[in-house]
Amino acid sequence: MNLHENSHALIFGGTQGLGLAIAHALAAQGCTRVVLAARDRAKGEAAAEDLGASFLPVDLADAGAVIAAVDRAAEIMGRVDAMCLAGASTDRGSILDTTPEVWDSVMAANARGPFFAIQRTAQLARAKGHPASIVTILSMVIHCGQSFLAPYSASKAALANITRNSANALRHDRIRVNGIACGWMDTPGEDATQRRFHGASDDWLVEAEARQPFGMLVKPDHVAGLAAYLLGPGSGVMTGAIIDFDQNVSGAYPE
């Protein structure tokens, strides 16, 4: 079904992992107008060429560059009516050892930049009088998070509030904003994170998945289908929702 044949999609963090999977899901549903925006130019240009999309180099931590990227994407495609925020900083730190510099950089990439991406997308949609749908990629850490993910957890919790607050503010403009709180996911970024911060060996994924209830980590393609649904007309008037996408239930305790 070509549910996205009329979509004009901008995907932040769309050059690998979940962001790229979302871009492919949109393309599979008929979306022929896609702009990928991320920091890595080489990966971005390769991904865009494979998709027949456009690529914009941008760092989510740079609010001015984020706003300019939304404007440029609108110029390239004519409008932005489907926007997804899939990029993030996953730098580590606990309440005891997080520095102000790490705090500021994580909050800039995961909350400040996304806030202004949503703002600019909404401003342009209102100016042209067309509906739009926005999806924020959150994390199960919004409910608490591991001790070594203090700034990351705080930033994603802030983005969850931004998601709901924006949904409430923009609903009468027919602009929908929803979020997906993902669990532990099997992505290239997670592989790099495990090796960089946790000294993981080559078989870390096999060991990690053996401990999971369903024998696997969350897979990008699973979440991508939900994101495409939320970005498209099939999700109707749904707005302000935060959906947990995980095999562990928040608030549950060992029995």
From TrEMBL:
CDD domains: SDR_c (cd05233). This is SDR family oxidoreductase. The keyword Oxidoreductase applies. It comes from Neotabrizicola shimadae. GO terms for biological process: fatty acid biosynthetic process. InterPro entries: KR_dom, NAD(P)-bd_dom_sf, SDR_fam. Residues 7-191 form the Ketoreductase domain. Gene3D superfamilies: NAD(P)-binding Rossmann-like Domain (3.40.50.720). Keywords: Oxidoreductase. Belongs to the short-chain dehydrogenases/reductases (SDR) family. GO terms for molecular function: oxidoreductase activity, acting on the CH-OH group of donors, NAD or NADP as acceptor; quinone binding.
